[in-house]
Design goal:
Blueprint: H1 2-24, H2 33-66, H3 69-101
Length: 103
């Protein structure tokens, strides 16, 4: 029985030392302030693009009610472009976060 207690106590010490060593290591996943600003800027662009999509949808609905085909085509084109911008901004945000977390 004494041997089992010694093994358990030894394993406890090893676990405590491993935890302390891990806590002392520097975290390589820290994002620098400039990288954080870049991510914030990308997210702001995504929000702005979403606002533009909402505005274009409102305009499209109004044009459909009025039957103005030229404006309908223009608004649909704007919507497609805004959706492309959103996808591109999301990709940039993910890329920036991934680059910032690299060691």
């Amino acid at each position: 029985m004494g041997r089992i207690k010694q093994v358990a106590l030894g394993m406890g010490f090893v676990a405590a030392l491993a935890t302390a060593a891990a806590a002392q290591q520097t975290d390589t996943s820290k994002i620098s302030p400039s990288e954080r600003r870049e991510v914030r800027r990308d997210r702001r662009e995504v929000r702005q693009d979403r606002r533009e999509v909402r505005q274009d949808r409102r305009g499209l609905r109004q044009d459909i009610k009025q039957g103005d085909t030229a404006d309908i085509r223009r608004d649909r084109r704007d919507l497609r472009q805004d959706r492309r911008d959103i996808r591109q901004d999301r990709r940039e945000t993910k890329r920036d976060i991934k680059e910032a977390k690299k060691p």
